[in-house]
Amino acid sequence: MHQHQLLAFTSKIGFLDATPPFKARSFTDDEYRTLYSFLTSRQSAQQLTATQLKHLRNHYITVFSISNRHDPELDNMEQSVQIWLRCRVDKTIFHCERYRRQSSTRLNHLACLEQMVDANQNYSYQSRPEHMVPAKFYAYIQFYCVHLFRGTYQMLMYSSYRKTEVHDGLVEDKGPLYDGFQDIRVLQHLCAKVKGHGGKIYFVDAPKVMEERLREDLLE
């Protein structure tokens, strides 16, 4: 019964043809133009866990400025997503944890993301106005997915964010921060990790970003 319900849902919103199997090799949407697309489908809809649903609701609360956490639109939203394993941004292919083979030693799902944050978030709105600025984050991408919300296909990724500190232009991994959904348009570039002195882990950024960070440190 559960599989039948999932199949009915995916057929209704266009993920699958009425007759299986699912054969589409890529997905994109007019909202994202041709710059973004998903590749390599898992060929089925997946029910989100209770934790993932909470994270997805938090994402929509932030993006759409929904004031009521128990808004019926959130409580009644579709709980299934279509899973994808790779994401193309222009000419760059981003992978995810689910795409990696168990025997693979290549790290290919660590990425730099750029999101808008409130520079005055530690102050009261009564004393400091909201001031949104771009900030870089680093995360291991777990999977990509398509979710239908407010009649629009949302192209999302579920990622594990890392706590970081910058030393002399190098980004040190300080451990897990939180998991969450984000729109794939926050993707910036691929990263790698290296082990430094004392077993510390550092993220290797894009050359241009590392040069800019070193330049900023020298000017301080």
Describe this structure in words.
With 220 residues, the chain is α+β, with helices and mostly antiparallel strands. The protein has one domain. The chain contains four helices and eleven strands; from the N terminus they run H-E-E-H-H-E-E-E-E-E-E-E-E-E-H. The chain starts with a helix and ends with a helix. The N terminus is likely disordered.
Topology (elements, then pairings):
Blueprint: H1 2-13, E1 26-27, E2 36-47, H2 50-63, H3 72-75, E3 80-89, E4 92-94, E5 110-118, E6 132-149, E7 152-167, E8 170-183, E9 187-190, E10 192-195, E11 201-204, H4 207-219
Antiparallel strand pairs: 1-2, 2-3, 3-4, 3-6, 5-6, 5-9, 6-7, 7-8, 8-11, 10-11
- The percentage of residues in β strands lies in 35-45%
Distance between the ends:
63 Å
Kindly state the percentage of residues in helix.
10-25%
Give the tally of β-strands.
Answer: 11
Q: So what's the oligomer here?
A: single chain
Shape descriptor: globular
Average pLDDT rating: 82
C-alpha Rg (nearest Å): 19 Å
Number of domains: 1
Q: How many helices?
A: 4
- Which structural class best describes the helix and strand composition? alpha+beta
Would you kindly provide a brief summary of this structure?
The chain is of the alpha+beta class. The protein has helices at residues 2-13, 50-63, 72-75, 207-219, and strands at 26-27, 36-47, 80-89, 92-94, 110-118, 132-149, 152-167, 170-183, 187-190, 192-195, 201-204. Strands 1, 2, 3, 4, 5, 6, 7, 8, 9, 10 and 11 form an eleven-stranded antiparallel sheet that branches.
